């Protein structure tokens, strides 16, 4: 029975009281991407399992342990998407977007599914904001996606993030590096965890990413990929750093960043926070030049990142960030009697048409109970309509925070008065928060309205 009222492990409900903040954050992220020329793409929650085997890679934790895979009723193997890149890449090829102007720049906000051990910052259903660039080979592209992540996070006021950067080379120079790594870890094979013993054969770089303290300790003195980069990869990496320097971004080189997924080449990066415990990577990404060919498409050097929304929200919360929220109700119109209820209903509709949020009684409460409700839902203003108000065609508009009242005409002038009252409130809030640009935007809004 308890199952009926308990969400599956590793999932979270978004409750109405938190949705305003999340909508603000998500809107801000997509908006930042838009300023860099990325347009949203939406792909299915599930894809053919084969797509993820090919793109994420058979040696990854995601494919080996974490995928939600099932047979559908037509006996196809289907997998809930564990990340956003594969679906976006598939869609680009399927719709031949790469035959239009290159590079193709897309953004997305999607649910992702991984069967992991749930803990702080690690869920089985989580959400990613991501961007991808398809068909851009130059270091400026690597630097641009890093700048998008940086700006998206800065715009939300996230502090104390460290940008960690590495290059994992190309298949050519990585082969040499794998040899050196294998030799290094082979000598310490006995001490490695069981998973890493397996990684030793298939993909020794993955050991660098192992979370076990013993393996981490062994990995400390492992050979460094940067010493093995071929000339082209070295030049590319220098190029990326040059653009980041030009944009004024600071970063640290972390040779142990290899990223979880198989398809990465050259640049890999993470934005890491110290404020949310051990799952501190808020955003991770890099270049995956081989992926599109792997999926049967043309050679199309590509790159992107994924940002964990739940981790981002956790950082914002732990840093005490103040996120603007739309008030749930600008005006609550209370009423007494049938005639007043209809008038309240009419005025509420009028206000909504004008873009305000307005509510009136839906459950036949007494006036006192209506006012209590208005208070509970955080209504900014209230108006009471009774026989007297209907007869006079006037009512008092009460500011719930200050208790101030102004008399308003229920006819013609009503909207204007409410509009002005509301504006004054917003201006006061904004100037308290020091948002000069927002004030300018509001004022130009007023002007447009008055014209
Ligand atoms: P980790 O090393 O933390 O497992 P990862 O390499 O598996 O990360 P990616 O596949 O690169 O992560 O996903 C990009 C981002 O998505 C991560 O940086 C993180 O913010 C977020 N993320 C990944 N897995 C989870 C999860 N299980 N729960 C919540 N967020 C996640
Ligand atoms: Mg992971």
From TrEMBL:
- Report domain Aminoacyl-transfer RNA synthetases class-II family profile positions: 34-324
Q: Which residues form the signal peptide?
A: none
| Catalysed transformations (reactions) | tRNA(His) + L-histidine + ATP = L-histidyl-tRNA(His) + AMP + diphosphate + H(+)
| Documented EC number(s) | 6.1.1.21
- Give an example GO molecular function: histidine-tRNA ligase activity
The entry's keywords: Aminoacyl-tRNA synthetase, ATP-binding, Cytoplasm, Ligase, Nucleotide-binding, Protein biosynthesis
Location relative to the cell: Cytoplasm
InterPro entries registered for this protein in UniProt: aa-tRNA-synth_II, aa-tRNA-synth_II/BPL/LPL, Anticodon-bd, Anticodon-bd_dom_sf, His-tRNA-ligase, HisRS-like_core, HisRS/HisZ, HisRS_anticodon
Domain of life the protein comes from: Bacteria
Q: Which family does it belong to?
A: Belongs to the class-II aminoacyl-tRNA synthetase family.
Q: How does it assemble?
A: Homodimer.
For this entry, the protein name equals: Histidine--tRNA ligase
Where does this protein come from, organism-wise? Solibaculum intestinale
Gene this protein is translated from: hisS
């Amino acid at each position: 029975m308890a199952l009926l009222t308990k969400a599956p492990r590793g999932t979270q409900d978004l409750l109405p009281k938190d949705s305003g903040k999340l909508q603000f954050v998500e809107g801000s992220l997509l908006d930042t991407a838009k300023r860099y020329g990325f347009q949203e793409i939406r792909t299915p929650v599930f894809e053919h399992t084969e797509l993820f085997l090919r793109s994420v890679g058979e040696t990854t934790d995601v494919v080996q342990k974490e995928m939600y895979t099932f047979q559908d009723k037509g006996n196809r193997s289907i997998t809930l998407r564990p990340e956003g890149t594969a679906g976006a890449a598939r869609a680009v090829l399927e719709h031949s977007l790469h035959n239009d102007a290159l590079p193709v720049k897309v953004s997305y906000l999607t649910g992702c599914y991984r069967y992991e051990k749930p803990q702080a910052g690690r869920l089985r259903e989580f959400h990613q904001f991501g961007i991808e660039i398809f068909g851009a080979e130059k270091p400026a592209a690597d630097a641009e996606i890093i700048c998008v992540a940086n700006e998206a996070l800065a715009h939300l006021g996230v502090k104390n993030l460290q940008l960690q950067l590495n290059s994992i080379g190309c298949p050519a120079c990585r082969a040499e590096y794998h040899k050196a790594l294998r030799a290094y870890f082979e000598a310490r094979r006995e001490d490695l965890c069981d998973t890493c013993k397996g990684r030793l054969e298939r993909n020794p770089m993955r050991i660098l990413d192992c979370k076990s303290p013993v393996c981490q300790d062994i990995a400390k003195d492992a050979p460094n990929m940067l010493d093995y980069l071929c000339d082209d990869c070295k030049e590319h990496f220098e190029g990326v750093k040059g653009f980041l320097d030009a944009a004024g971004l600071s970063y640290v080189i972390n040779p142990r960043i290899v990223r979880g997924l198989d398809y990465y080449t050259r640049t890999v990066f993470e934005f890491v926070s110290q404020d949310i415990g051990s799952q501190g990577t808020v955003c991770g990404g890099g270049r995956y030049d081989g992926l599109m060919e792997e999926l049967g498409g043309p050679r199309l050097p590509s790159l992107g990142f994924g940002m964990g929304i739940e981790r981002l929200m956790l950082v914002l919360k732990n840093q005490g960030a103040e996120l603007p929220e739309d008030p749930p109700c600008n005006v609550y119109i209370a009423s007494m009697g049938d005639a007043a209820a209809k008038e309240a209903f009419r005025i509420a509709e009028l206000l909504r048409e004008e873009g305000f949020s307005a509510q009136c009684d839906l459950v036949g409460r007494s006036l006192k109970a209506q006012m209590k409700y208005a208070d509970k839902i955080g209504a900014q203003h209230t108006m009471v309509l009774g026989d007297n108000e209907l007869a006079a065609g006037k009512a008092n508009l009460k500011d719930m925070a200050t208790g101030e009242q102004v008399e308003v005409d229920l006819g013609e002038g009503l909207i204007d008065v409410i509009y002005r009252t509301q504006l004054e409130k917003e201006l006061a809030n904004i100037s308290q928060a020091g948002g000069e640009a927002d004030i300018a935007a509001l004022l130009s809004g007023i002007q447009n309205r008055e014209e």
